[in-house]
Amino acid sequence: MTKEEVRALVISKLRLREDSRVLDIGSGTGSVTVEAALMARRGLVYAIDSDENAVELTRRNAIRFGVSDRVIVIHGEAPEALNQVPGEVDAAFVGGSGGRLRDIIVGVCGKLSVGGRLVIDAITLENASLALATMAELGFVNVEVTEVVIAKGLRTGVGTVMLSRNPIFIIAGEKNRCGRVSSVVSIKDAIKQR
Ligand SMILES: C[S@@+](CC[C@H](N)C(=O)[O-])C[C@H]1O[C@@H](n2cnc3c(N)ncnc32)[C@H](O)[C@@H]1O
């Protein structure tokens, strides 16, 4: 499950509006789907998962949190399952890709409106790097990567000990026009821009 603290950042980076149409790819428990649907009160969230149990869990949680009227759950594997989503979306989150991250980003690029936001959670360096490379190749703009390291307090006999979780990379960017190669910034310019 995407943990509460990471979800807060993901939702913030999706920059949802009340009427946003959102994709949650690899919805799992539905935790991001529910948070997105709570924000997009007049919008729609398409939750996609290839696992039957995850699909059922997402459905149940959408009902439990009172957002099932604006959640459409799709049982299928991305990117093919994106064909079941009609029209364009304003924001997309990728929380699971099963080794198909590049194809999923290309598929999502085809569904996002221009200016639409793509946010990806990556646990491995390889996926973070693949996400950045693919988004650059497709011409996404304002791409940023954030490394999140969360430590939670555990009460012990001698006091509260902070237990670290593994770092997560959150990659976010905006669709410009699919297939356009964005300009490459030199390391020197990148440092100047900070
Ligand atoms: C880390 S988990 C779920 C994270 C989810 N945001 C949550 O809070 O529960 C990743 C999920 O992605 C799904 N998944 C992996 N590859 C997929 C693909 N290509 N298409 C659809 N779902 C996929 C898995 O079945 C799993 O439920």
UniProtKB/TrEMBL annotation:
Task: List its EC numbers.
Answer: 2.1.1.196
Recorded hits in CDD domains, A to Z, give:
AdoMet_MTases
At which positions is S-adenosyl-L-methionine bound? T2, G26, S27, G28, T29, G30, D49, A78
- Provide this UniProt record's keywords sorted from A to Z: Cobalamin biosynthesis, Methyltransferase, S-adenosyl-L-methionine, Transferase
Q: Name one GO biological process term.
A: methylation
Molecular function terms in GO for this entry? protein methyltransferase activity
> What PANTHER family does the record tag this protein with?
COBALT-PRECORRIN-6B C(15)-METHYLTRANSFERASE (DECARBOXYLATING) (PTHR43182), COBALT-PRECORRIN-7 C(5)-METHYLTRANSFERASE (PTHR43182:SF1)
Please give the name of this protein.
Probable cobalt-precorrin-6B C(15)-methyltransferase (decarboxylating)
- Natural source organism: Vulcanisaeta souniana JCM 11219
Gene name of the record: cbiT
